Amino acid sequence: MRIALAGLAALAVAMGIGRFAFTPILPMMQQDVGLSVAGGGWLAAANYLGYLAGALWAGATRATAATAIRAGLVVISVTTLGMAFASGFGTWAALRLLAGVASAWVMIHTSAFCLESLAALGRPILAGVVFAGVGIGIISAGSLCVLLMAVHAQSASAWLVLGGVTIAVTALLWPMFRVAVGAPGPARASGRWTWEQARLVLAYGAYGLGYIIPATFLPVMAREAVSDAALFGWAWPAFGAAAVLSALGVTLVAGRYSNRAVWIASHLVMALGVAAPVFWPGIGGIVLAALCVGGTFVVITMVGLQEARSVATAHANANAARLMAAMTAAFAAGQIVGPLCVSLMLGTGAGFAAALLSASAVLVAGALLLVRR
Question: Is it the case that residue 78 has pLDDT exceeding 90?
Fold first, then answer.
């Protein structure tokens, strides 16, 4: 349980703050520094570009898990605090890019460290606790921002508070990840790519593109639907709560349904949630989107990587590490394309509706790719 809770806390910092703290803070930055939605899309893309670079870097290095996790947490602390004191779009973009690199390191190495350790101890079912950290981080960061908006605090204050939280958690976790225990080094690529492997990569990339639009702009859309911060600010914590419950709940149905079936169903539920604000304008559609997308994106991460192991095992020439690395890269690439598409569509006057419907269609296509003949 100590290992699972340490993993939960590390992922809460890496994803809730390093990756997604910008989402609930974006409406605050719009108000007090005049950041546009299109500008927010470019800053989000910088973070996701860093995540892609970090994922590729993590897959190519043989650093121990302890070293990588500690270094990543320190960088997230520094870049989060830096956002409180920085001014100018270029500096913001550089800080968000570095935070993305560090988040990828913590995400990948924490997963490897915890899953390997839990399997060795005969408690792999606690993996659900580890991945619940993503939702815990989102809830915590979102709730803090709601409280700060309620007292009319500036966006710099939000970055400062979250940076302080990150430093505290990093200090608490420092002795938990021992240098003596390391994740296995990256395996060399081997064998030929099969269509079965390729469509897992494509479907995982579709997932990255499909979920990232609401994951980035949900509070902004909620702010357009209702002006009361006490209402629109809770859209992001609701997203995180759904992620926590789904990560824990999926362990209860483990074994009843195949990973592939859960993945396909999650894609379709997410597609419904992404399109919901278009057909149900107002706060009702926003809440449905938060629940559908938040309730599936951690599940897809878990079952997608488990399916990668199964496919690699079934093919003699396949390499599980290689396949997972390719899926992670496709996921990160989808996250880069998504916010850029929103920025371009908003620039042409298309609005959020076109972006949401496009993302929903991509998710449905990803589900169809996963269907076996």
Answer: yes
Phi, psi of 254 (to 5 degrees): -60, 130
Residue 364, number of CB atoms within 10 A of its CB: 18
Residue 39, token pair as written in the block: 């500008």
Q: What is the pLDDT of residues 149-191, one digit of tens each?
A: 888 888 899 999 999 999 999 999 998 887 434 444 444 445 5
Judged by DSSP in three states, 257 sits in strand
d(CA 265, CA 244) in angstroms, rounded, equals: 18
Q: Hunting for tokens 């559609």 — which residue is that?
A: 285
**Domain residue extents for the chain:** 1-178, 193-373
Instruction: Considering only residues 356 and 227, tell me which one the structure prediction assigns the higher pLDDT.
Output: 356
Q: Which residues contact 79 (CB under 8 A, 6 or more apart)?
A: 18, 95, 96, 98, 99, 102
Asked whether the domain spanning 193-373 has the same topology as the one spanning 1-178, the reply is yes
pLDDT for the residue 245: 83
At the second CATH level, the architecture of 1-178 is Up-down Bundle (1.20)
Only one residue has tokens 């996250």, namely 335
CB 70 within 8 A of CB 10: no
* Helices then strands, each counted (H, E), the chain: 15, 0
> What is d(CA 72, CA 290) in angstroms, rounded to the nearest whole number?
28
**How would you classify residue 319: left for phi > 0, otherwise alpha for psi between -120 and 50, otherwise beta?**
beta
Report yes or no: 304 and 207 within 8 Å, Cβ to Cβ.
Answer: yes
pLDDT of residue 101: 93
Look at residue 254 in the predicted model and tell me its pLDDT: 63
CATH 3.40.640.10 is the classification of domain 193-373: no
257: β partners? 254
- The predicted-structure confidence for 212-231, as pLDDT tens digits, reads as follows 877 766 666 666 666 665 55
- State the average pLDDT over residues 192-204: 88
b/e sequence 85-123, b meaning 16+ C-beta within 10 Å: ebeeeeebbbbbbbbbbbbbbbbbbbbbbbbbbbeeeee
360, pLDDT greater than 50: yes
Compute CA distances 166 → 162, 174, 199, 252, whole Å.
6, 12, 37, 31
Beta-bridged to residue 254, according to DSSP, are: 257
